[in-house]
Design a protein that fits this description.
With 191 residues, this protein is α+β, with helices and mostly antiparallel strands. The chain is built from five helices and five strands. Helix 1 runs antiparallel to helix 2 (38-58) and helix 2 (38-58) packs antiparallel against helix 3.
């Protein structure tokens, strides 16, 4: 039995400015809008917006005053979709991206919590150019995956297993591959 995977990647450079996040959202939606399910696209756009917004607010730009935004779409032969987004900036000299405590009255500080809630994995990588924050999402929301996993457990074990509510930690990025895609319509809101 073959398990072929089709892959398609994009990379764009946007200004290290508030309009850069908007440009990244619109470009991603234009490229993936007719390719992935609307619910996955909405989650990917939300995660991308948070990562680009964080890069603009908290990090230095890359040379040229820009942020590099990349995404990769993978579709396996069963039609399962997965998108990995990556935002590369010049890094911050005083801190790394991390989840931090946020009070109910705080007006910011929830960006990575949104990423953690929507993504299956996320991580941070550094190189000589700067830092990249990436997140991997699939066509199935993590809560749905957990529910399906729980439903597959034998009935006698379900009552004994407490619900887990642990924050996801950064992970290693998914492996690379290549291929072509089939299209599916989707129309999320971008603004």
């Amino acid at each position: 039995m073959s398990t072929a995977t089709a892959e398609r990647s994009w990379c764009v450079v946007v200004p290290h400015h508030a309009r850069g996040a908007r440009q990244a959202r619109h470009r991603l939606a234009a490229e993936l809008g007719n390719v992935v399910a609307a619910s996955l696209l909405a989650d990917v756009i939300a995660v991308l917006a948070e990562l680009v917004g964080n890069a603009i607010r908290h990090a230095e730009p890359l040379p040229g005053g820009v942020v590099r935004v990349a995404w990769r779409l993978r579709v396996d032969d069963a039609g399962a979709e997965a998108v990995t987004v990556r935002v590369t900036d010049g890094g911050a000299s005083n801190r790394s991206p991390a989840l931090r405590p946020v009070g109910t009255e705080a007006v910011d500080g929830r960006g990575l919590r949104i990423v953690v809630a929507l993504a299956e994995q996320w991580g941070i990588e550094r190189d000589g150019l700067g830092q990249s924050v990436w997140a991997a999402l699939s066509g199935q929301h993590p809560a749905q995956q957990a529910a399906q996993h729980q439903a597959r457990q034998p009935a006698q074990h379900q009552a004994k297993q407490p619900a887990q509510h642990q924050a996801k930690q950064p992970a290693q990025p998914p492996a690379e591959s290549s291929g072509r895609l089939a299209a599916q319509p989707a129309q999320p809101s971008l603004d």
